[in-house]
Amino acid sequence: MLRLPGPVYRQMVAHCIDGLPDEACGLLAGEPPSSQLSSPTTATKCYPTANAARSARLYEVDSRDLLRADRDAEQNGLALVGVFHSHTHTAAYPSPTDVAQAPDPAWHYVLVSLRDAEAVLRSYRIVEGNILEEPVVVLDH
Amino acid sequence: MAVAVRIPTVLRVHAGGRSTLDAEPGTVGDVLRQLSDHYPGMAGQLLTQEGELHRFVNVYVNDDDVRYMERLDTKVSDGDVLSILPAVAGGVA
């Protein structure tokens, strides 16, 4: 399960909309991740990042933004626990490219679909090529 | 003094669980080859069979991505920090 504080949720969706027409991406930090797939994670911090691919079909977290986010998380006693990116014209489901490039089974892979009038957000774990959807809870605060 | 190498979470399993390792100075390529020799599990994750930097890995000397410097020929000196982070990428294509 992925828990998202309201401000983090809104920051992610806003960054995805700002990125149009390209895919947008960013990183999430929280308590260092557990290898237990069932244990819930709260993503307490969101780092909007540049999409180095500058594409409507691909994303690549800008490498310098990645280093900055990793360091900032560590300095705050957190760890990077996942990544989010938008699908501008398709559903919030990982593509074969997303699965092939998902490096970390402990990470949460969040998709924000902007296909419809209202953004749709879903979260997945990707373990050895298998896609497992997980519940997302948006917190009030 | 040596070069401090920061190991990302996903590779720590190949480094006895350690998050930082020491290496001898030289070039980025020299440091990555030292790591690959000491920790064979990391070898294929860092460098391709042709000896190039793996495309899914970012390597930094201090604050700079070596892809924007001299790649594997970038110098690494005593006291520098070499960070390794998996690239984060995907998309519909």
Structural account:
The complex is a heterodimer of chains A (141) and B (93). Chain A has 141 residues and is α/β, with parallel strands linked by helices. In chain A, 22% of the residues lie in helices and 38% in strands. An eight-stranded mixed beta sheet of chain A has the order 8-7-6-5-2-3-1-9. The longest helix of chain A has 13 residues, at 6-18. The radius of gyration of chain A is 14 Å and the shape is globular. The mean pLDDT of chain A is 93. Chain B has 93 residues and is of the alpha+beta class. Chain B has one domain (3-86): Roll (Ubiquitin-like (UB roll)). In chain B, α2 (28-38) packs antiparallel against α3. Chain A binds chain B through residues 23, 25, 27, 33, 53, 55, 57-61, 63-64, 66-67, 70, 79, 83, 85, 87, 89-90, 94-95, 97-98, 101-104, 106, and chain B through 9-10, 56, 58, 60, 63, 65, 67, 83, 85-93. β4 (58-60) of chain A pairs antiparallel with β8 of chain B.
Topology of this protein?
The complex is a heterodimer of chains A (141) and B (93).
Chain A: E1 2-5, H1 6-18, E2 25-30, E3 41-49, E4 58-60, H2 63-75, E5 79-87, H3 96-100, E6 108-113, E7 120-127, E8 130-134, E9 136-139
Chain B: E1 3-6, H1 9-12, E2 20-23, E3 26-27, H2 28-38, H3 40-46, E4 57-61, E5 64-65, E6 75-76, E7 81-86, E8 89-91
Parallel strand pairs in B: 1-7
Antiparallel strand pairs in B: 1-2, 3-6, 4-5, 4-7
Helix pairs in contact in B: 2-3
* Uncertain parts of chain A: none
| Topology order of chain A in helix (H) and strand (E) letters | EHEEEHEHEEEE
Radius of gyration of chain A: 14 Å
CATH class of chain A: Alpha Beta
Strand fraction of chain A equals 35-45%
Order of neighbouring strands in the sheet with most strands of chain A: 8-7-6-5-2-3-1-9
Q: Main interface pair?
A: A-B, 31 and 18 residues
What kind of assembly state do the chains in view correspond to? heterodimer
The CATH architecture term of chain A is 3-Layer(aba) Sandwich
CATH fold-level assignment of chain B: Ubiquitin-like (UB roll)
Range of helix content of chain B: 10-25%
Radius of gyration of chain B using CA atoms only: 13 Å
The amount of beta strand of chain B, in percent, is 25-35%
DSSP E strands of chain B, number: 8
Going by helix content, strand content and strand pairing, the class of chain A is alpha/beta
Question: Helix coverage percent of residues of chain A?
Answer: 10-25%
